[in-house]
């Protein structure tokens, strides 16, 4: 097992290098001048000074080599647009908020999704089941921007529940964005758990366990739930990765100063170093989330260790 | 179970639609209600409130609070309030003495001597001296800082050379025409007489920075913990992309006149989110408003509107649309007033010339063009169009993708259909858009949209755009007479004479025989929501500047 | 696409219990298999209803713009922001354009992008997965390592970079943006299927009598993965549609005059206080499409894989 984990961890290093190379290559394809922010033309002298200052006058391979070297020393370089800030500052200040938002939404999805699905499966075809599945199907299908807009309209503007419309300060400000972001994965988890639980309940060994007179409650907790959680674990990695790296819409609507909001503006402003830095960071999140899942999976289902390297 | 679930889902979708419709429809009736809770029938000029605190929305994160590096409105507005400008502009954009108590312009108009007040000081107690200015300006001009706005100083002798220097830079720095004669006297040598130079000093690029602080903290000197300022407000905290809070600095030379004790500032970029925050009482002043919301918000007493010194225009690529009659016809076909009323919606003024109303000398310019009617003149447009030998029928119209532009383009596309033109709207995100319009513009582009907001208060700032070698002329329009007149205006110190030349320039653009390289649509306005308790004092001048020293919060 | 976590369960399908194995190895019974599947699908009333709604939606989007009495691009400010009424069942937008017609057009764009990107994802997946799985050995190992690497790419950020590269977002740019970092899962599924099938007796027999490898692939392997791929289309679709909506919402949607449902919703959000129907109509259209896709996928899964059956 240790060997498996060590191998998987080492494997992330070439992955990150490839991600840097890909992002670097793609960014270079984008036309646009990071220094021309308004319709005003930049005089040639000033353009030259700027290119020189940020090393953009060097050939691309030199820029890449320098960048990789800097990343290796955890220096993501200065922002080209936010002239007094380093990418490191931006990550340090904004990333924890995205992490918190994504993490809380993920927890919300797990904490409400799994019981919802489990109850649905155990009470299959009851009204409870219908209601729960109805809720999760709709929750999954409605785009998050509509959910967020409805939340703000009804829970803040029409009826005052004490939530602010925007920002990321006290817990009050976090409730609506977290629920708006977590609704879809919650619904997905509920459906997933319901489906696999129904399937597991049909299995022979469960029937045997029941026939042997094991107490029903114990059977559920030991066998059924445990088995049904395997697909949830598998789904959890990509979901967590997606929630942390994909909260652009929620961050925009609720004016949350996370990296998602920064990312879009940075791409549009051609702030190469910020885009590079944040992409590498987001890739690391996805990689780590996948890594954790693989390891968890290896623990839950030992067969995978041999097949997957 | 699924069949039931699915029916339920469909039912719920329909129900939710009804709910949204009902919920929001109801809002129409009690639209005034939300505003009513904030402020009842208070007449303006109420008594001063005990607590002089407001919360504003700065909009975007300021890219830099370094006067040398700042290049956007948000940074500029904050800087103008935490620093002490040499001159300020009054409501009519005339320069008013501020930290510079007086100035003198030499006979030939090329030497400007400023005298500083003696009570200017930095927040650490140091006095503000002429040397501060000399050092700060040369820093901004220096190639090492690579400041975007270094060109603001190009009117000063030696500045452009120093900014573009490859070697021997130190020697060239000494030749820049900025000289601290003594602590309070700053002497500036200009390349030509520039009658607008005093107004230009109100621009944030000309603010001074505190040398020891900059040298100690380098790039990080603008962080709230490090910064040393010299204005009426201090930067209390700066949480990036989230908030900037200012507090009154009690030691400021004229602190007694400042009413506000604190200005909390949020950064909400999304217009709809900002409006919601205002309606929920979280902010007292919004930034700009989403166009689509304006008709609803206009009905509230919080709505405020200010004229702006800016022109929204469409430029023609004259190499593609070669016939001037086609350009005139295309301009005549547009119903500017209808676009304003139905699309732009903020009571902008239909542009009758390129120089916006409010510009000093505007009356003498009489930019009163036969080709820029307020409402469409389709008949004449069609007549003109018929005279065109080889009309360009397939028009590619390039826009950037920020909100609002597409809507105007759709209306114009619709209008040009009447002339038998088929318009393809091509939308690009800003950075690529700028690459496309050049200059020179991409060959595929026939028409593009842009705006121009004045940086300083002289029609020169607008009219010099259309010279042959202008870095902002994306129309391929080249006219020697025009270039010559611009040169002549630059050297003309007398206002009346200069305005007369500006009138000729406008004539070349839009007059009876005008070449129509550009088609102005409207002159900008700025719109905000403001609580009635801060209205009338939270004023902006034509350059979109906020002066927090004048803001007073009244009793509700 | 990672938007739907349920789909992610298919990631380790090559190692964990693969749901469709049992049905796989019987090419002789092909026609019967499909007939059976169709019968089973028809027994599932929810899937039938979802399928019908889906077909209606497609027909509406395809046909209505030709039939509609309204020009979808005709600007008439006198008619703007009308709520749903008899003349305009979905109301009008802020240009006074008929939303019933524009929603049909928007559906063409959204569904076109949705199916386009899904097909691209599956095509790349099939090509990559079947080569990797069929050839096996070192090549398989290398290709899977590479795939592992690509798994590190965050999907939306890369989509954003791609739209920026093209600058002017068109139908095809959007398809590229949405598929560039989301075909990895489908490649894995196909590879898993192919590896399982490779051990199948028919395939072994075919190989034994000396059939060419691509013949084996085309005759025996791909048809057997078809069922899984059809399910995958409907599983993949919601994620792609939502992805397009997200990109449109943050201002990276395709250029006018076309407007996808995502863009219509984004425009609607700006006026939701005065004309809530403008955000509601496209949002509900998106939701309906996603719901249908989910139920159809469920139905297909049950129909094509008799092992898992609804209680």
> What is the correct CATH architecture of the domain at 308-525 in chain B?
Roll
Arithmetic mean of pLDDT of chain B: 86
Instruction: State the CATH topology of chain C.
Output: MetI-like fold
Strand content of chain B: 15-25%
Basic shape of chain B: globular
What is the distance, rounded to the nearest whole angstrom, between the alpha carbons of the first and last residues of chain C? 29 Å
Count, helices of chain B: 19
Oligomeric nature of the chains: heterotrimer
Please give a structural write-up.
The complex is a heterotrimer of chains A (309), B (556) and C (311). Helix content of chain A is 77%, strand content 0%. With 309 residues, chain A is mainly α. Chain A has a single domain (87-308), classed as Orthogonal Bundle (MetI-like fold), CATH 1.10.3720. With 556 residues, chain B is α+β, with helices and mostly antiparallel strands. Among the domains of chain B are: 62-231, Dipeptide-binding Protein, Domain 1 (Dipeptide-binding Protein, domain 1); 308-525, Dipeptide-binding Protein, Domain 3 (Dipeptide-binding Protein, domain 3, Roll), CATH 3.10.105. Chain C is mainly alpha-helical and 311 residues long. Chain C has a single domain (35-64, 90-310), classed as Orthogonal Bundle (MetI-like fold). Chain C has helices at 5-8, 21-24, 30-43, 45-67, 99-135, 137-150, 155-166, 171-179, 184-198, 201-208, 213-252, 261-270, 277-304. Classes of the chains: A mainly alpha (309), B alpha+beta (556), C mainly alpha (311). Chains in contact: A-B, A-C, B-C. Chains A and B meet through helix 2, helix 4, helix 5, helix 6 and helix 11 of A and helix 1, helix 9, helix 16 and strand 15 of B.
């Amino acid at each position: 097992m240790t060997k498996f984990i060590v191998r998987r961890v080492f494997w992330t290093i070439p992955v990150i290098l490839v991600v840097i190379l890909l992002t670097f290559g793609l960014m270079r394809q984008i036309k646009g001048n990071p220094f021309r922010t308004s319709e005003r033309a930049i005089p040639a002298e000033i353009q030259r000074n700027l290119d020189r200052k940020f090393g953009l006058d060097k050939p691309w391979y030199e820029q890449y080599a320098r960048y990789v070297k800097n990343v290796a020393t955890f220096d993501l370089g200065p922002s080209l647009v936010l002239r007094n800030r380093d990418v490191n500052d931006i990550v340090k200040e904004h990333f924890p908020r995205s992490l918190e938002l994504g993490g809380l939404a993920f927890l919300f999805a797990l904490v409400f999704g799994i019981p919802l699905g489990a109850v649905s499966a155990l009470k299959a075809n009851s009204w409870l089941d219908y209601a729960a599945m109805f809720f999760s199907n709709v929750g999954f299908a409605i785009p998050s921007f509509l959910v967020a807009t409805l939340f703000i309209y009804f829970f803040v503007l029409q009826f005052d529940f004490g939530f602010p419309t925007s920002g990321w300060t006290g817990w009050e400000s976090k409730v609506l964005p977290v629920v708006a972001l977590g609704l879809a994965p919650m619904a997905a988890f509920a459906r997933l758990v319901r489906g696999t639980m129904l399937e597991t309940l049909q299995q022979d060994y469960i029937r045997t366990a029941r026939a042997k007179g094991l107490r029903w409650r114990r059977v559920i907790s030991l066998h059924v739930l445990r088995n049904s959680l395997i697909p949830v674990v598998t789904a959890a990695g990509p979901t967590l990765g997606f929630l942390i790296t994909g909260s652009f819409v929620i961050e925009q609507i609720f004016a949350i100063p996370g990296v998602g909001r920064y990312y879009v503006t940075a791409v549009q402003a051609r702030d190469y170093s910020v885009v590079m830095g944040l992409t590498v960071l987001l890739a690391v999140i996805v990689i780590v989330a996948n890594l954790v899942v693989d390891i968890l999976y290896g623990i839950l289902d030992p067969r995978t260790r041999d097949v997957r390297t | 179970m699924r069949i039931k679930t699915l029916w339920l889902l469909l039912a719920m979708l329909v129900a939710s639609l009804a709910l949204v419709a009902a919920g929001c429809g109801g809002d129409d009736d009690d639209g005034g209600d939300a505003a009513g809770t904030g402020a009842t029938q208070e007449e303006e000029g109420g008594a001063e409130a005990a607590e002089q605190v407001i919360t504003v929305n700065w909009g975007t994160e300021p890219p830099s609070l370094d006067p040398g590096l700042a290049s956007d409105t948000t940074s500029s507005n904050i800087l103008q309030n935490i620093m002490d400008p040499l001159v300020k502009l009054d409501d009519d954009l005339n320069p008013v003495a501020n930290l510079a108590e007086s100035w003198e312009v030499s006979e030939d108009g090329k030497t400007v001597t400023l005298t500083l007040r003696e009570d200017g000081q930095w927040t650490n107690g140091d006095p503000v001296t002429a040397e501060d200015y000399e050092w700060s300006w040369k820093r901004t001009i220096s190639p090492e800082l690579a400041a975007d706005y270094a060109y603001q100083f190009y009117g000063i002798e030696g500045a452009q050379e120093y900014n573009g220097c490859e070697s021997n830079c130190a020697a060239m720095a000494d030749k820049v025409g900025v000289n601290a004669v003594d602590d309070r006297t700053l002497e500036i040598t200009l390349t030509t007489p520039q009658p607008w130079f005093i107004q230009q000093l109100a621009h944030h690029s000309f603010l001074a920075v505190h040398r020891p602080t900059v040298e100690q903290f380098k790039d990080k000197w603008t962080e709230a913990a490090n910064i040393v300022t010299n204005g009426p407000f201090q930067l209390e905290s700066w949480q990036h992309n989230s908030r900037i809070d200012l507090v009154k600095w009690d030691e400021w030379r004229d602190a007694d006149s400042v009413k506000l004790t604190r200005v909390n500032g949020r950064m909400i970029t999304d217009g709809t989110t900002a409006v919601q925050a205002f309606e929920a009482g979280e902010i007292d002043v919004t930034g700009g408003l989403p166009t689509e919301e304006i008709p609803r918000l206009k009905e509230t007493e919080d709505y405020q509107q200010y004229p702006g010194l800016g022109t929204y225009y469409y430029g023609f690529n004259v190499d593609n649309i070669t016939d001037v009659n086609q350009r005139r016809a295309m301009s005549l076909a547009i119903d500017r007033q209808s676009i304003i009323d139905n699309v732009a919606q903020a009571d902008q003024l239909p542009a009758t010339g390129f120089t916006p109303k409010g510009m000093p000398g505007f009356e003498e310019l009489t930019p009163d063009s036969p080709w820029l009617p307020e409402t469409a003149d389709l008949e004449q447009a069609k007549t003109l169009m018929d005279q065109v030998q080889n009309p360009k029928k397939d028009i590619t119209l390039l826009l950037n993708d920020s909100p609002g532009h597409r809507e105007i383009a759709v209306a114009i596309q619709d209008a040009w259909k009447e002339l038998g033109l088929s318009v393809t709207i091509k939308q690009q995100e800003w950075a690529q858009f700028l690459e496309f319009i050049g200059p020179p513009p991409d060959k595929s582009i026939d028409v593009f949209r842009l705006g121009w907001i004045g940086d300083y208060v002289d029609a020169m700032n607008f009219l010099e755009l259309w010279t042959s070698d202008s870095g902002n002329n994306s129309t391929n329009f080249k006219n020697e007479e025009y270039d010559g007149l611009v040169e002549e205006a630059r050297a003309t110190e007398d206002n009346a004479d200069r305005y007369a030349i500006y009138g000729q320039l406008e004539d070349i653009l839009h007059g009876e025989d005008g070449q129509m390289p550009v088609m102005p649509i409207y002159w900008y306005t700025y719109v905000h929501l403001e609580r009635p308790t801060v209205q009338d004092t939270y004023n902006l001048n034509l350059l979109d500047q906020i002066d927090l020293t004048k803001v007073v919060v009244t009793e509700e | 696409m990672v938007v739907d976590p349920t789909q992610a369960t298919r990631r380790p399908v090559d190692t964990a219990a693969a749901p469709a194995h049992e049905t796989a190895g019987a090419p002789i019974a092909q026609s019967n298999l499909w007939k059976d599947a169709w019968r089973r699908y028809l027994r599932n009333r929810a899937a039938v209803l979802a399928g019908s709604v889906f077909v209606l939606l497609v027909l509406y989007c395809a046909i209505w713009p030709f039939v509609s009495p309204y020009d979808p691009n005709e600007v008439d400010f006198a008619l703007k922001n009308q709520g749903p009424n008899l003349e305009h069942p979905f109301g009008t937008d802020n240009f006074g354009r008929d939303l019933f017609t524009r929603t049909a057009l928007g559906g063409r764009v959204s569904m076109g992008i949705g199916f386009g990107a899904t097909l691209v994802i599956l095509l790349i997946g099939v090509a990559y997965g079947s080569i990797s799985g069929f050839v096996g050995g070192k090549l398989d190992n290398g290709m899977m390592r590479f795939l592992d690497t690509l798994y590190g790419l965050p999907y939306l950020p890369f989509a954003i970079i791609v739209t920026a590269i093209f600058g002017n977002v068109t139908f095809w740019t959007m398809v590229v943006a949405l598929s560039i970092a989301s075909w990895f899962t489908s490649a894995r599924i196909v590879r898993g299927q192919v590896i399982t099938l490779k051990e199948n007796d028919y395939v072994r027999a075919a190989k034994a009598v000396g059939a060419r490898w691509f013949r084996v692939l085309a005759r025996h392997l791909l048809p057997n993965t078809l069922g899984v791929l059809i399910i995958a289309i409907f599983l993949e679709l919601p994620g792609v549609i939502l992805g397009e909506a997200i990109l449109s919402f943050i201002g990276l949607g395709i250029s006018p005059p076309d407007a996808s449902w995502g863009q219509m919703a984004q425009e609607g959000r700006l006026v939701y206080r005065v004309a809530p129907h403008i955000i509601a109509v496209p949002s509900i259209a998106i939701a309906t499409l996603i719901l249908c896709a989910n139920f159809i996928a469920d139905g297909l899964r049950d129909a094509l894989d008799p092992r898992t059956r609804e209680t």
